[in-house]
Each structure stands twice: as C-alpha cells, then as structure tokens.
Amino acid sequence: SGRTSDGSGAPRPLYMDVQATTPLDPRVLDSMLPYLTAYYGNPHSRTHAYGWESEAAMENARRQVADLIGADSREIIFTSGATESNNMAIKGVARFYKSRKKHIITTQTEHKCVLDSCRSLETEGFRVTYLPVKKNGLIDLKELEAAFQPDTSLVSVMTVNNEIGVKQPICDIGEICRARKIFFHTDAAQAIGKIPMDVNNMKIDLMSISGHKIYGPKGVGALYVRRRPRVRLEPLQSGGGQERGLRSGTVPTPLAVGLGAACEVAQQEMEYDHKRILQLAERLVRKIMSEVPDVVMNGDREHRYPGCINLSFAYVEGESLLMALKDVALSSGSACTSASLEPSYVLRAIGTDEDLAHSSIRFGIGRFTTEEEVDYTVQKCIQHVKRLREMSPLWEMVQDGIDLKSIKWTQH
Fold first, then answer.
1. Which ranges form a coiled coil (predicted)?
2. 342 or 330: which carries more pLDDT confidence?
3. pLDDT range class, residue 177, cuts 50, 70, 90
4. Which superfamily, per CATH, for 270-395?
5. What distance lies between CA 257 and its chain's CA centroid?
6. pTM here?
7. Is the dihedral of CA 198, 204, 209, 213 positive or negative?
8. Cis peptide before 26, with omega less than 30 degrees from 0?
9. Which of 82, 145, 134 is nearest to 109 (CA)?
10. Could you tell me if 129 and 106 are in contact, meaning their C-beta atoms sit under 8 angstroms apart?
11. Which of 228, 239, 299, 400 is most buried by a 10 A CB count?
C-alpha cells in the first residue's frame, strides 16, 4: 500500500523513517518556487529591486521561524542545518567566554554533532561533563545541579531524542541554568514544529533548528541566539558579516523561504498532526505488543514525542529484521560503525542489554503516514519477528524455560 515507483517500475518501500528526514510539504515547495526562478536576487544586494525582493522574503521567513518558537526575528540566524547550529552554539559560546569559563555540561545521549563539538573543545583545554541518563532516558536534575562548577559557561541538552523519542524536562533545566546565569542551549531539531516550544517560557538561550526534519528543504536550518540577556558567540566562519556577523555567507533565499514556510505550516498543523500521530503510534505499539511477546519499548513511556518509537525485539538480530522488512524504510537503533556492529550509544546509555540493543528498530510516524502504512508495517513486522525467532536457538531455549543469563558461554 502507498508504494510509488522510481521510474524503473520497481515498487519503492513505505517510508517510516521520518526522524532521518521528512518529505517536502507541497505548500513549502509552492512558496520556494518563485525564488528559484524569477526572484533570484542576492538578499544582501542593497542597490536594486532584485536584492530588495529577496531581502524582504528572507526577513519574512525569519519572522515565521521566530513566531514558531516565541522569539524576536532579530534573534534568528540562518544556517545550513542543525549540525552547523549545534557547532556554532557550543563552540561559539565556549570560545567567546574562554578567558573566564572553561567548563561545559551536556548529556551522553546527545546527537553526534554535539558530542563531537564537545570533544573537539576538550582538545582546546575545555572540561566537559557528560551527564548520564536514567533507564528511561531522562537526565536526573539533581545530577545536573551537582555538575555545575564556578566556571561553567554552557549547558547543552537536546529537547527530543532522535533515537528513542524521549523529551527532556527543558523548562526545569532552563530555570536551573537561568538562576545560575549559565547559558542553556538545546538541540530542538526533532522537537520544533512537533511540540509547542517557547524560548522565553522555557528560558532557552540558544536553540538549533533543522529544515528537513519539519517537512522543509534540506541544507537549511537556524540558530536562535537570545538578545536579552545577551548571548555572545565567536563566529565559526569569517566573511562579509551577514547574519549579525555570526555567520558570514550569502543566505540562500529559496531555502530560507522554505524553512519559514515549513515553520508556519507546522504552527498551523501542530495540534492536528500531534493528535493523529499519537493515534497511529498507539495503534502500532498496541498491535505489535499484543501479537509478539518479549518486545521492549525503549525510553520513557510518558515523557516522549509519540512519532518516534524504538522497540527491541528480544532474540532477533536487528539487522536481520531490517533486511527482512525491505519493503518498509526503517532504521535500527544500532548503526554499523566501520567493521564492528556496535549497538547505539543512546541505548547503551540507558542501560539496555547488549543483545537487546542489537535487536532494536526505530519506527518514525509523520504528517503523511497513513493508517494503512502503519498496519502494513505492523503485519510485516510480526510475521518476520516470528519467523526469525523460530530460526533462533536462543528463542528455543527460552521457550524451554532456560534462563539465558545463567548460562556460562565458552569462548572458542
């Protein structure tokens, strides 16, 4: 159901991987088209109508992004995406305040670009605290408070996790940081446009946004940088001083327009989308759990975004299940890292057993997912899990009442 051809006549898989990227909303494409053809001026050209048209469109887009998060449009900096925004926020704040402050706090389950930015700062002499998370994927606020040091400049905690969908207590973290006059950055790529976000209520000082996670174009994102109390950044790239001098380079008008339109559509559709996605997610989980025993849902059941579901199917190899489900586009919790199949560091951080971490699959449900697609995915999933388990000697032993934990496996 719902499968389209790529022109070769071969059917394409159903798309259930919206955490990786989302399709472009047709309304977003409509808003971009004029700026890809007729209105091609450089938005920084000040001497003629071509530049003014593009500049007006860019500023309108900036306002649309700001409106979605309760910000002032002057606080929005266009970037190439959330990876760049995260790099700018973390390295920019750390380096600007480095003469007095050399300590940063983040969590072990952040996106790789946050962890790698922190690691690169460690080579520059900064100290980083990587907070552990509890079994449910949430941080312990007491551990956060205990981690503060007199020279802490920044706390960076993502809003919604891209692998397990858990939602951190952003308001509480914002309160704690503001009381100590420490800047708070959040990677909101998976949250923005899906759950209500307000930078003032949540006391967020810097926020990273990505276009292609909210049905906008790839290659564009934004960084929200608070003006009061003012956050200062050292820019990553030098040049003509565009974007308040924080990110030089010509702003790509069509992409910025697309991001703005995606934010405006998300604001209009958020409540409807959320209700629908919640129903579809509950349907998927309920149907799988009722038909298949020994399925574990990773991450907190309550504090989460429903469209990101991470399930571990005990006694099934995640990669085998993915290959069996070749007519559904999904991803596994464990990614191939070079030659070794390492389970996901997010699942390891929440204390998932090695074997369960290897058996996890992430299901993504989005704005355009249909009930038929969910049912088809569920049916195929149940069918292949049962088939793969029948082939598994471990499953057979469990059925015979043997406790696998009690077995001493010998190394040959």
1. none
2. 330
3. very high
4. Aspartate Aminotransferase, domain 1 (3.90.1150.10)
5. 22
6. 0.95
7. negative
8. no
9. 134
10. yes
11. 299
Q: How far apart (Å, rounded) are the C-alpha atoms in residues 107 and 134?
A: 11
**What are 214's two structure tokens?**
């909210």
Whether 298 contacts 352, CB under 8 Å: yes
Q: Where are the domains of the chain?
A: 26-266, 270-395
Identity of the amino acid at 342: E
Residue 411 has pLDDT above 80, yes or no: no
CA dist 265 and 257 (Å) reads 12
Catalytically annotated residue among 113, 118, 336, 381: 336
Beta bridge partners of 156: 106, 185
Q: For a pLDDT cut of 90, what percent of the chain falls above it? A: 90
| Confidence (pLDDT) at 5 | 61
Is 336 among the residues known to form the active site?
yes
DSSP string covering 181-240? T-EEEEE-TTTTTTS---TTTTT-SEEEEEGGGTTS-TT-EEEEE-TTTTP----SS-SS
Residues near 385 by beta carbon (within 8 Å), at least 6 away in sequence: 292, 313, 316, 321
CA atoms of 336 and 358, how far apart (whole Å): 11
- Residue-wise pLDDT tens digits, 264-282: 999 999 999 999 999 999 9
Token reading at 150: 């007199």
Separation CA 19–CA 233 (nearest Å): 29
- In whole angstroms, give the CA distance from residue 94 to residue 97: 6
What pLDDT digit, counting tens, does each position of 376-385 carry? 999 999 999 9
Contact 362, 332 (CB under 8 A): yes
DSSP assignment, residue 40?
-
pLDDT tens digits for range 332-357: 865 444 345 678 999 999 999 988 99
Q: How many CB atoms lie within 10 A of CB 123?
A: 7
Quote the pLDDT of residue 412.
Answer: 64
Asked if 110 and 128 count as a contact pair (C-beta separation under 8 A), the reply is: no
Identify the DSSP state of 114.
H
Distance CA 94, CA 391 (A): 53
- The fold of 26-266 is Aspartate Aminotransferase; domain 2 (3.40.640)
Query: What tokens were used for 267?
Result: 């604001």
pLDDT tens profile 1-43 = 445 566 677 789 999 999 999 999 999 999 999 999 999 999 9
Dihedral sign computed on CA atoms, order 241, 243, 248, 250: negative
